[in-house]
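Below sits the subject:
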Amino acid sequence: MECDLVVRLSGVGRRYGLRGPWVLRGVDLGIGAGALVRVEGANGSGKSTLLRLLAGIDAPSEGRVTGRPRTAFVPERFPAAMPFTALGYLAHMARVHGLARGAAERSAEQWLERFGAAGFAGTPLSHLSKGSSQKVAVAQALVAAPGLLVLDEAWTGLDAAARAELDRAVAERTAAGGCVVFVDHDPRRLAGVVDEAYAVEGTALERRTPGGSSSAAEERASAMRRGPTVVIVTRGPEGAELPGPVAAVAVETGGAVTGETGDAMSHAPASRTLTVPESHSDLVLRELLTARPPWHVVTVERAPVIPGPAPAPAAEGQAPR
């Protein structure tokens, strides 16, 4: 990810107070266009501090942050006590990010609709339930299509439909060339599609292998256990190339369809099965159908969900987790 870097942290450290202990120190991090980055660490380790530095909410005590594009941030705790309605707040945030009034209002309405909160458009923020307030918190970060999206436990408090919609929004941002950095308590969140993973250890940031040390087959099986996934069967002209844009979103395939660099592969077989996370399916279908020449989509169906292994029995005197 050394080319097309969206944001870079160089020797960054952060502490609170002139003589306070260092929360982070010596952090070097470059995030490339289109990257999905997960940050891990124990509670209180400094994950949120790192995200706030990336988002520009906090300034580093030492080192520097460069290259930050239009950035949007979903904090762990959304301050809902503001004198706005849900729609008014989203439109205001869109205008802060540079959208004209009409475009800001249209985007605000669209995101409320997508997160199932259109019915609360005229409701004051202070009157919203925790779940509805979280939908507004997430929507405000998406109204202006940010180049850098920073999510701190953004899925917490959302219902299942809204969580799936946020997954789709993340896929859209990265497919469009933006980058997304997130923290989430669920280790399965977006597993299988993460490009880079880091863990805060002490005051340092250490690189991890996305998804752990599992093999590719184990990753696919894990993704299917989480389910649902979508199987997209496509048929193209004999010898046709798979359209390049598909490679950016078809993160899991049923065969060697795309190269690691995202380049289209030549001499694709006449028929191919793509298995992708459901959050990416709309993007894949759109690219297939708008390719020149277009691909013929034969079927779209859910992949079977593979039962996961039974949890290990708890030791005597230990409560099951």
Summary: Residues 147 and 178 are 4 Å apart (CA to CA). DSSP finds eight helices and twelve strands in the chain.
